[in-house]
Every structure is written in C-alpha cells, then in structure tokens.
Amino acid sequence: MELKKVLVTGATGKTGFLVLQKLRQLKDEFEVIGFARSREKVEELFGTTKGFIIGDILNPIALKTALEGCQALVILTSAIPKMVAPPTSGSRPIFDDINAASAVRRRMTVDFAEREMPEMIDWIGQKNQIDAAKEQGIEHIVLVGSMGGTNENHPLNSLGNGNILIWKRKAEQYLIDSGIDHTIIRAGGLLDQAGGVRELLVGKNDDFLTHPPNGIPTSIPRADVAEVVVQSLKESNAKNKAFDLISKPENTPDARITTDFSTLFAQTTSGL
Fold it and tell me: Is 146 an active-site residue?
C-alpha cells in the first residue's frame, strides 16, 4: 500500500507533538514530515531534526517546498499569547523583594510577540498554508481551531487585543472556499490529560458553549484531539466537515469511550 505523505505544521506545539507521535506509529500508512520554525525546539523535543523541515509559515516559498510530494496537510499553527511584565523602575530591579515581585505579577498583561499576532499567524500564516497546498495539489487539509468563533465578544478575542478567534474563523472560511477537501476541528478547552478514555462529542456553532450537554465542561484532552486529527486522515466521511469537539469527563456514568470514529464523523456536517 502506498504511504500517504503528510506535512504537520505547528509540530512543536503540545498538540502537534502528539499528532506527530501518533502518525509516526502508523508507519504502514503514513510518511510524516514535521514543519517548525525553531530548530532548537525541534531538537529539544525530538532529539533530532530528521523528518523535519525548518521554516516559517509567513514564507510562502518555504511552505511550497515543504509540501512537495505530500497528499495531506495538518495545520496546527496558532498564535500564542505571552505574559508581559511592566517596565522596571530606573536601574533598580523591580523584583528586589517579595512584595515588589508580587505587585509585578498583578500588573502583568497579556500580549503577542512581534510578527506573532493572531492576524499574522492565524490568518496570513494559515492563508499561506492553504494557498501553498492548493498550488501543490494537496488532497486534504485538516485544520485544528478553537470553539468560540461565533462570538466576537469572546474573552479570548480581548487577549492582547488580538481578536484571535475572529482571525481563526476567517481562515476556516478561506479553507472551505478553497475547494480543497478539508476537516475543521474546533476543539474546546485543551487538557493535558490521558486520551482514549472518554466519550467524545461533536457539535456546531458553539452550541456546547451556550448549552453545555448536562452541564459538562466544554473541554477535551489534547491527546483526544490528536487522535481525531489522525482519524480524519483515515476516514473518508471526515472530509468536508467542520465541527466543535469536546469530551465527557472521564468515568462519567453511562459514557461510552469513543472508538468508532466513522460513526463520530457521520454526526458532523459541512460548512461553518
């Protein structure tokens, strides 16, 4: 059987790391290439840069080269807000006593680094990836986004005045309009917990946020999101679908651990 060659961008992020691990375990099905900006971070996480292309999603030429020979693209890039400390007072360190340090922590704000604003990463960077994929004849794009995009006043949009969910939503629509087969996974709050032990739920239009089923948290382990990404590349009925994704808490009474992903995808629909 011919291997499906897949490029995974954002491969050094927490979810990207898991996706890469899972795909590399399926050596009889996939040839996987990671795409990341930081060589140092790749070496730190994976111990080698073998199987990686070091590049920037803001560089269309680098993306075009990385996608040569691929059949699928997994987009896991996302702008990441950072905590920013207030400026120091004169030449004296502002952290010179416990009270001062505590005051600084209270005054810290959230912002994005230069060239890492959501408009750059979640819109222009993702648009670059979609354009390069179309030019290279990529057959399927799996994009991982976030729930909350239907609400312009969502608190995440106020972080660093970045409007991150607005830009993500714009990129999702651009992907749908591109004509490329796609799967758009809008995950709930991400948990660093074990995967494969929960029942997964799919929905639409942020209904889980406005009407949580039985009041359960609108969250999901990263490992389960990573598994849904992998299954999206395997299951034909995942194509041209866009859906919200959360999980029931572990050990919820009467919950059934999700193992049949074809049935899960059958519950999803096309369009935003």
Answer: yes
